[in-house]
Write a structure and sequence with these properties.
about 120 residues, Laminin, 2 helices, about 35% helix, transmembrane, EGF_alliinase, Alliinase_N_sf, Alliinase EGF-like domain-containing protein, carbon-sulfur lyase activity
Length: about 120
Amino acid sequence: MEPAAGGGHQARRRPAGLIGLHALLCLSLLLNALLLAHHFLPPSRLLEHDGGGSSGCGLSWALRAAREAEAAAAVDCSGHGQVFLDGVAGEDGRPGCECNACFAGPDCSLRTPDCTADANR
């Protein structure tokens, strides 16, 4: 028998489904390796927080911002106000309620007497 034209061996082509299966297998192995590394290796120093509120290395500023946002979200304004991180500070220095018209108090629960609210605002 003579070799095929083109000089030697013919290149084998893999079916498209087999290539997709191979890629899926590689991705699965990579994700499993990342999962094992996440569970068995010590936490990254980038996520450590020094606890003093000062900006340390890495992502401590993001953790501090997340804590501030959670503290603001936990403030209850009785449905008659809003809390902003850069807004009014309460008596304890934490973010306080900015009350809607006709409401007052630390949690906006006190209705102002003889107040006419503008319903169009």
